[in-house]
């Protein structure tokens, strides 16, 4: 059933960029029908998508898929749905998922905001991951950042009672905005306490985005939120 709430008009949090290799383009042609999930605006039937009932993890903007692939290999008992718009990353994850024989990975190629808005039943997700999203550092582009009040509301609605939202960024001004936005969402509770970050989770894979940020001398900021209904 589609969410009757009209979408909030906002600039997209992404621009299409990057060129696919021949192998990535071939993977999209051959493997997207296998691992891809077509999103039409209606609610996704995740049991049908994965062919089973299992804990569900959604990663928004998975980039080159390093984190998504690592977690899927580590946790075959969980299902991982990645949402991305960039063809290069999608092609890489498709190819690697096939090569590694991962049966618990599925991909949506589309706008994560729209998928979050209408694609998930209330309480249907166990984890939502937003790692190193585009910081859109210029003031005039801040409205493009994925972490805004609408996304906070959609995630809070989609998470189950035991669910968790995890975020990380190496851009301090964005980290501070994340705190302001997410602390203000009544459906979410900061696991570290208001206006505080959590220590880096031991099970979060180190990706090239994190290594690049550290190489530039940036601190890494991790955030964790639980549903307000969390026992």
Automatic annotation (TrEMBL):
Q: What are the GO cellular component annotations?
A: tRNA methyltransferase complex
The reactions it catalyses are: guanosine(46) in tRNA + S-adenosyl-L-methionine = N(7)-methylguanosine(46) in tRNA + S-adenosyl-L-homocysteine
Which family does the record claim for this protein? Belongs to the class I-like SAM-binding methyltransferase superfamily. TrmB family.
Query: What is this protein identified as?
Result: tRNA (guanine-N(7)-)-methyltransferase
Q: What is its EC number?
A: 2.1.1.33
| Gene3D superfamilies, A to Z | Vaccinia Virus protein VP39
Any idea what job this protein has? Answer: Catalyzes the formation of N(7)-methylguanine at position 46 (m7G46) in tRNA.
- Organism (species): Leifsonia poae
Record pathway:
tRNA modification; N(7)-methylguanine-tRNA biosynthesis
Q: Which residues take part in binding S-adenosyl-L-methionine?
A: 59, 84, 111, 134
GO MF term set? tRNA (guanine(46)-N7)-methyltransferase activity
Sorted keywords for this record are: Methyltransferase, S-adenosyl-L-methionine, Transferase, tRNA processing
């Amino acid at each position: 059933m589609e969410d009757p709430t009209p979408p909030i008009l906002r600039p997209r949090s992404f621009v299409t960029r990057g060129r696919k290799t021949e192998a990535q383009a071939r993977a999209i042609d051959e493997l997207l029908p296998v691992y891809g999930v077509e999103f039409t605006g209606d609610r996704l039937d995740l049991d049908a998508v994965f062919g089973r009932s299992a804990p569900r993890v959604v990663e928004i903007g998975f980039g080159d898929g390093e984190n998504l692939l690592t977690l899927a290999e580590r946790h075959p008992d969980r299902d991982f749905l990645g949402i991305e718009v960039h063809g290069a990353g999608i092609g890489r994850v498709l190819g690697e998922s096939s090569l590694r024989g991962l049966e618990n990975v599925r991909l949506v190629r589309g706008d994560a905001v729209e998928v979050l808005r209408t694609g998930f039943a209330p309480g249907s997700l166990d984890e939502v991951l937003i790692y190193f999203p585009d910081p859109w550092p210029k003031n005039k582009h801040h409205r493009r950042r994925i972490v805004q009040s609408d996304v906070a509301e959609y995630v809070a609605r989609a998470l189950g009672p035991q669910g968790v939202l995890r975020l990380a960024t190496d851009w301090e001004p964005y980290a501070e905005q994340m705190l302001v936005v997410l602390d203000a969402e009544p459906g979410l509770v900061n696991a570290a306490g208001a206006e505080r970050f959590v220590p880096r989770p031991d099970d979060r894979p180190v990706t090239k985005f994190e290594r690049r940020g550290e190489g530039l001398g940036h601190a890494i900021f991790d955030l964790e939120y639980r549903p307000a209904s969390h026992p």
